[in-house]
């Protein structure tokens, strides 16, 4: 319908580590979210806003391409996607409106317990399994070392055990998954949190008005959490 154009569209993770916190942030902002029918778009009943529920790895692209006006995504996913787009000369512009207070984790290199670790240089030439080859390459370039990759989108932590890789570069929060898989964390290469991002395309006057109302509410919710 024509009125849909005037509704601010925000991409959030459908299910996973960021989905509950993303939804509860918006609920605390006063949104009445109609999630009952599990569609791609969830209408907010009392504000001109729609939430698009998608895979977190799709969120940077949806915002950069202007399909969604805003998104909540981890810095890790965002930065990896932006680096990938820079390589392929696709539009990688966005604005980070604010860092949120959830989804904290670190991207780390981990090796099997039995592998002796003698500093960053000893990683040179290793084959690492990761979902984040671009962030890993940047770390390698900054430290004058080269890696080989095995790109995996899940179960990265089993790669060394099955002989796919010498080690991994994966997200860590508590470290229990590493420990359970006989791995030790040797280098932290990136610190991440969830962020609220906006595409670089200008918003319509109606959407901008909605956003101007939303931002102070989000700031209020974050303040109250301190
Ligand atoms: P999707 O399947 O939705 O594309 P995903 O597989 O990355 O994404 P999750 O495992 O739910 O889904 O992770 C979503 C985000 O949560 C990560 O990108 C990261 O920013 C954050 N996060 C926080 N702590 C961790 C952790 N310990 N492990 C993985 N991700 C974490």
Hetero groups in this structure are: adenosine-5'-triphosphate
Question: Overall mean pLDDT score?
Answer: 96
Strand content: 25-35%
**How many strands, which pairing sense, and closed or not: the largest β-sheet?**
7 strands, mixed
Query: Which of globular, elongated, flat, extended, rod-shaped describes the shape?
Result: elongated
Give me the CATH fold name of the largest domain.
D-Maltodextrin-Binding Protein, domain 2
Number of helices: 6
What is the architecture of the largest domain at the second tier of CATH?
3-Layer(aba) Sandwich
Regions with little confidence, pLDDT below 50 for 5+ residues: none
State the total count of DSSP E strands: 12
Determine and state the CATH class of the largest domain: Alpha Beta
Query: What percentage of residues falls in helices of 4 or more residues?
Result: 25-40%
Supply Rg: 20 Å
Trace the largest sheet across and list its strands. 2-3-4-1-5-12-6
Question: Into how many domains do the coordinates divide?
Answer: 2
- Series of secondary-structure elements, N-terminal to C-terminal: EHEEEHEHEEEHEEHEEH
Give the structural class: alpha/beta
| Amino- and carboxy-terminal Cα gap | 41 Å
CATH superfamily of the largest domain, please?
Periplasmic binding protein-like II
């Amino acid at each position: 319908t024509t009125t849909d154009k005037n509704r601010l569209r925000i991409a959030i993770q459908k299910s996973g580590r960021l989905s509950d916190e993303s939804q509860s942030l918006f609920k605390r902002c006063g949104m009445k979210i109609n999630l009952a029918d599990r569609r791609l778009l969830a209408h907010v009943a009392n504000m001109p806003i729609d939430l698009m529920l998608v895979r977190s790895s799709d969120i940077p692209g949806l915002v950069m391409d202007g399909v969604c006006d805003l998104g909540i995504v981890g810095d890790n996913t965002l930065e990896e996607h932006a680096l990938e787009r820079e390589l392929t000369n696709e539009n990688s512009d966005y604005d980070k409106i604010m860092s949120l207070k959830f989804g904290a984790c670190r991207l780390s290199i981990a090796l099997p317990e039995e592998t002796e670790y003698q500093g960053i240089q000893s990683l040179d030439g290793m084959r690492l399994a990761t979902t984040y080859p671009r962030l890993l390459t940047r770390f390698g370039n900054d430290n004058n070392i080269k890696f080989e990759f095995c790109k995996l989108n899940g179960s990265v932590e089993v790669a060394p055990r099955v002989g796919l890789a010498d080690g991994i570069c994966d997200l860590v929060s508590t470290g229990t998954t590493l420990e359970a898989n006989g791995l030790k964390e040797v280098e932290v290469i990136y610190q991440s949190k969830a962020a609220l991002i906006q595409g670089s395309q200008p918003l319509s006057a109606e959407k901008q008005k909605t956003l101007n109302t939303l931002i102070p509410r989000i700031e209020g919710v974050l303040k109250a959490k301190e």
